[in-house]
Write a structure and sequence with these properties.
- The chain is an all-alpha fold and 217 residues long.
- It is 73% helix and 0% strand.
- It contains 9 helices and no strands.
- The longest helix is centred in the middle third of the chain and has 32 residues.
- The radius of gyration is 18 Å and the shape is globular.
Amino acid sequence: MDELIRNLAVYALPVLFAITLHEAAHAYAAKYFGDTTAYAAGRMSLNPMSHIDPVGTVIIPVVLYLTTGFVFGYARPVPIDFSRLRNPKRHMAWVALAGPAANFVMALLWTILGILLDAFQVSEPFWHKMAYAGLITNLLFFAFNLVPIPPLDGGRIAVSLLPNRLAYKYARLEPYGFFIVLALIFLKVLNFWVVPVVMAGQGLLSLIVSPLNLLLH
């Protein structure tokens, strides 16, 4: 129980930021490309309470963490009317990509924070653990949301890129997507996607911050 409480303290802020900016990025991109549905609903917001779903954001992740060690959850879906986008099929991909892109940027910022903590010799381990938690949480959000199964962002990107006939058929998976993803998690099949994407993300982040590392060390 003590370990669970420590982990919750370390991960609380990174997870809240990861969820909030991910969902707000979807809303902002939708508004940019012509759909103001999410904006009108108050979802283009940095207030975590606008995006948190009690079951999907709290209960399911905790239960999965305790039973499988894998954390999976979801926020309240951002309401987007794709038909109101200026170019619905093409812009759907950009709106979907905005969320994972926000997570990658946050992973970069947490990485920079970790480098600065080392450079300024901050000895308190809590902040180092939080910086690492921010990095890994956002990379997991990034990788998981890019899984090409509707209604995940990767699924919407796939629908956007496929020819119309195939896109229509693929989009029909959406009502079953949540159950497909849960099955892949419990069967540990999803690891074959998430782990390589996270590792690739870490490699790219290391490359991006290498000049800062050289400057400070």
